[in-house]
Amino acid sequence: MINLEDWAEIRRLHRAENVPIKAIARQLGIARNTVRAALASDTPPKYQRAGKQSLVDAAEPEVRKLLMIDAKMPATVIAQRIGWQHSLTILKDRIRQIRPEYAGVDPADRLVHEPGQAAQMDLWFPEPRIPVGFGQAAMLPVLVMTLTYSRFLSAVMLPSRQAGDLLAGMWQLIAQVGAVSKTLVWDREAAIGGKGVVTAAAAAFAGTLATRVVLAPPRDPEFKGMTERNNGFLETSFLPGRQFVSPTDFNTQLADWLPVANSRIVRSLSGRPIEVLDRDLAAMTALPPHPPATGLQTRVRLGRDYYVRVDGNDYSVDPRMIGRLVDVTATLTRVIVVCDGTAVADHERCWATGAVVTDPGHVTIAKGLRSQYSAAKRDRERAGRALPAQRVMFRDTSDYDVLFGVDFDPTTGEVF
Asked: Is-contact 43 18, C-beta < 8 A?
């Protein structure tokens, strides 16, 4: 086989200097047929080792039979079925080559992201447990939003995965951006669309913002792969080396870091997200004049213990509202109780569970109400003991005869 240097020299001498084949062969000391073969070849010579038999060749027919039955059958199962006793690596390599003949190929097209078209949403669960008070620590969800055109990234830690908290988190991130994308892309999160249909709460939220929620197909992480990759980016670039003393501390550190993340150069953009954001915003929908309904909301009748339960915690309410209906709203940071348009409780929201949050003013009011009730009870008891004994009067039955004009003879029983 001719080497690369001789092949290049033959082609140069013949085509550039018009040296005859016979002279080239004499000058380089090679056969004329070798010169002719070099001139006929348009590609450089390359050594290729002759193929040799593999242990898998004899087993390939049986492998193909199994793949015909189930194209997704794992290589380990195939090895067990055919009684493979040799290296599993060479069997896996052969199966990897021939499996597409039976399973087919599922190509992924490149997506073209238009300005203002979509925002991908996902939940990221950072590993460190965050102290939440009352001696507790919890692994809390972080809502991550990525604008698909500008790659602008925003995120916030939430107290729970309940619908009200997810919607509150979405509204916070969208309001910070200043506009809303045409679509909000979610996977099948239970509170958003766990059964493949957008929940009523999520649909109402989207309707208020004049957008729509799009659910990813089941088991298709590529559908919102951009924000999935950002979850990994947060895991490797934000989290390492940090410590957090509370959810508020986590959100503060995250808010300080996000401008740095949005100022990095993104290869697919050939620029920075913060520099492309204006084009994204120009194509988005303006925010509504009134915010959508978010947070955890409920209406209960206040019991004698004057506490309401929200997300596993008890919060005190003005005890003067006992027996009346009150409206309870829990935002990401506050728990507010309203009765007939008047706020009767306002607490900082607790992210622990099983906690009791008490306003000292409510305890003072309850103490005064109990004193009033006890005094009134004592007064009633005293008034009851002071009343004189009532005398029961009896009337003669003959008075009724006179009243109704009846004359009665007691000896004969005759009535006149």
From this structure: no
**Cβ neighbours for 123, distance < 8 A, ≥ 6 positions apart:** 141, 142, 143, 144, 161, 189
Distance of alpha carbon 12 from alpha carbon 1, whole angstroms: 19
Measure the CA–CA gap between 283 and 367, rounded to whole angstroms: 59
Beta strands in 98-191 (DSSP E): 118-124, 130-133, 136-138, 142-147, 153-157, 183-186
Tokens of 84: 């493979």
pLDDT tens figures, 217-235: 887 767 888 899 999 999 9
Q: 43-95, pLDDT tens digit by residue?
A: 888 877 766 788 899 999 999 999 999 999 999 999 999 999 999 999 999 99
Q: How far apart are CA 280 and CA 145, in angstroms?
A: 14
Instruction: Give me 338's structure tokens.
Output: 């309203």
Beta-carbon neighbour count of residue 271 at 10 Å?
Answer: 13
pTM over 0.85: no
In this structure, are residues 131 and 137 in contact, taking their beta carbons and an 8 Å threshold? yes
| Closest of 355, 284, 292 to residue 133, by C-alpha | 355
- Cβ of 250: how many Cβ atoms within 10 Å? 21
Asked whether 79 and 111 are in contact (CB, 8 A), the reply is: no
Element (H, E) at 29: none
The two counts, helices (H) then strands (E), for the chain are: 15, 14
